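User:
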Amino acid sequence: MQNKIQFKQLLIENGLPVTPRYDIRSLSDIDSIADEIRFPVMTKSTDGCGSNGFSVCHNIEELKAGYKHASATSASGSVIIVEKFVKNDGVIVFYTFSNGKMHFSGLEDKYPVRYEE
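Assistant: Predicted structure:
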């Protein structure tokens, strides 16, 4: 569940709606699909957490910078997610796994905050 692409695929396989994603596998792919991209989009690493490497991009230049930023903050540095940016409030859902069973543990409001260095 820490790998965002695998988690998203699990949601799709179970009929749940997901945010549209652009298939960008390298920085050089951005120019080849530039006409297809509908801004704003967001970039994030598949293996990051806590909004590390997260960027909102409003044009191609910001997308390239966001892609580089997500790659630099990724543990693997290889797989970056680029998807439509949806601005809304969110929730964090907590689950506990024990003896092969999943149990709902709670909900929390999510308010994105940018922390200074």
